[in-house]
From TrEMBL:
<dbReference type="InterPro" id="IPR011991">
    <property type="entry name" value="ArsR-like_HTH"/>
</dbReference>
<protein>
    <submittedName>
        <fullName>Transcriptional regulator (ArsR family) protein</fullName>
    </submittedName>
</protein>
<dbReference type="Pfam" id="PF12840">
    <property type="entry name" value="HTH_20"/>
</dbReference>
<keyword id="KW-0804">Transcription</keyword>
<feature type="domain" description="HTH arsR-type">
    <location>
        <begin position="1"/>
        <end position="94"/>
    </location>
</feature>
<keyword id="KW-0238">DNA-binding</keyword>
<dbReference type="InterPro" id="IPR036388">
    <property type="entry name" value="WH-like_DNA-bd_sf"/>
</dbReference>
<dbReference type="InterPro" id="IPR001845">
    <property type="entry name" value="HTH_ArsR_DNA-bd_dom"/>
</dbReference>
<dbReference type="InterPro" id="IPR051081">
    <property type="entry name" value="HTH_MetalResp_TranReg"/>
</dbReference>
<dbReference type="InterPro" id="IPR036390">
    <property type="entry name" value="WH_DNA-bd_sf"/>
</dbReference>
<keyword id="KW-0805">Transcription regulation</keyword>
Length: 94
């Protein structure tokens, strides 16, 4: 049986243009990225990016690693593969 509560969280998290752009950036770069790198690339302030990253993390779409005061973000590709197979590939701009 699928976890419908998690599905709803995932879909709500992805129903935002800024969060989709964060996911796209992490997928295209295919590496762990610092919050500052993501923020600078999108032109979004630190508090706003923190909110979006928290939403993605709580939906199980990203993983956050802390090192001192720095936070590093990676995609949880296994979550996308399980609940949204093929979705990440649709984010690549042609």
């Amino acid at each position: 049986m699928f976890d419908n509560e998690l599905r709803v969280k995932i879909l709500k998290a992805l129903a935002d243009q800024a969060r989709l752009e964060i996911v796209r950036t992490l997928y295209v770069e295919d590496k762990e990225m610092g919050c500052g790198q993501i923020s600078e690339g999108m032109g979004i302030g630190n508090s706003t990016i923190s909110y979006h990253l928290k939403t993605l993390r709580e939906a199980g779409l990203t993983y956050t690693r802390r090192e001192g005061q720095n936070r590093y973000i990676t995609l949880r590709k296994e979550t996308f593969e399980k609940y949204l197979p093929g979705f990440l590939e649709t984010l690549v701009k042609e």
